[in-house]
Backbone:
């Protein structure tokens, strides 16, 4: 299932429906363009806490995914990335289902 998630993330990136990095994710959540933030397993604690506060304030979900900064970067053709959002609801649900498959039904 690991490859499925990373492949689906690459698909969302190619479709232009992914925003990367703290500032872009915060803007998307605050504008209501994203309802879920994906956070890498090795994101800095300060980054996680700051984004958790933004998500809580906006009623958005934050999912901690079992992929490193480097794995996310490789899957999307970008530098190391700790946070990303998918602005298309269907693609976001596809990614969440990929995680559930990998974790036996638990996305977190």
Residues:
């Amino acid at each position: 299932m690991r490859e499925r998630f990373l492949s689906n993330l690459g698909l969302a990136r190619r479709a232009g429906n992914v925003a990367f990095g703290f500032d872009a994710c915060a803007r998307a959540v605050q504008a209501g363009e994203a309802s879920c933030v994906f956070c890498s397993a090795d994101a800095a604690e300060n980054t996680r806490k700051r984004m958790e506060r933004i998500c809580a304030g906006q009623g958005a979900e934050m999912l901690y995914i079992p992929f490193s900064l480097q794995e996310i970067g490789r899957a999307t053709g970008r530098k190391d990335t700790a946070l990303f959002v998918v602005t298309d609801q269907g693609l976001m649900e596809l990614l969440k289902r990929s995680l559930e498959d990998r974790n036996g039904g638990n996305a977190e």
Remarks:
- The helical segments are 2-14, 22-30, 45-58, 69-76, 89-102.
- The radius of gyration is 12 Å.
